[in-house]
Specification:
5 helices, mainly alpha, 9% strand, two-stranded antiparallel ribbon, 3-stranded mixed β-sheet
């Protein structure tokens, strides 16, 4: 019986730590952002939440009932976000060697703001032969 309590306590502590680290889906958590200044001197958000906010209706973290993860993560601006913000978004999207790819994203700026599919970035990334899955994961974490 003592082992069961220990496991339960460990799982509860891990869940609590995850919830705290993710901001608990509260306003001002990690998906909130202050406007970033772009090269043109205009303000634009560097990080945005997926439609519907950081949690699903009903408050389940992860965006789906019961806390199941969804394919929509917070997306950061390929033009305005800092390298560390981009690396974090790429890591969250499951991109291997996220720091390296974040450097490449920053290196090839600016990207056309009217190109929602980030064609220029796709072309630049393809030069390194990362594989289509990696490119798709990188693009899924970014917006112009």
């Amino acid at each position: 019986m003592r082992i069961g309590r220990t496991i339960w306590a460990t799982v509860t502590l891990a869940a609590l730590a995850t919830l705290v680290a993710c901001g608990g889906g509260q306003p001002g958590g990690p998906t909130a952002s202050a406007p970033a200044t772009t090269g043109s001197g205009t303000n634009s958000p560097a990080v945005t939440s997926p439609p519907g906010g950081p949690s699903a209706p009903g408050g389940a973290p992860g965006g789906a009932p019961g806390g199941a993860p969804t394919s929509q993560l917070a997306r950061v601006s390929a033009n305005a976000a800092g390298e560390s913000q981009i690396a974090t978004a790429l890591r969250d999207a499951g991109v291997p060697d996220a720091e390296r790819w974040a450097k490449e994203v920053v290196k090839h700026r600016p990207y056309p703001t009217d190109d929602r599919s980030l064609t220029k970035l796709r072309e630049e990334l393809a030069r390194y032969n990362p594989g289509q899955d990696t490119i798709d994961k990188i693009i899924s974490a970014l917006q112009p």
